Amino acid sequence: MPYLRKQREKMMTSIQKESLVCRVSGKKLQKTLDLGMQPLGNGFLSQKDFKKEYFYPMATGFCPESKMFQLLEQPAPEKMFHAEYAFYSSTSRHMQDHFGTFADWVIASDCLRHED
Prior knowledge:
116 residues; 3-stranded antiparallel β-sheet; 18% strand; flat; alpha+beta; 3 strands
């Protein structure tokens, strides 16, 4: 898969150039796991679309300050959320409750600065 290898090298170079910081605390992330180039989950592609499948570098980091485990690079939103996307959190009461509780926790923690 030379194409994926080239795409991965290009994307990993852009990740390495960025300061890998936590989205919650702004502190430097510790790289934890690199799973290489991965397709998005639940793509439900038809066979004719296999060659156009989107891959991204699935590497993760951990922030000791906020205790958050997160992707080092977020996949392109337009590739994730499209007309066939089936899992909008707003359609699930459980997900709304979960993210509401999480937001309350982040706000109450010492991770945010006043300007955040």
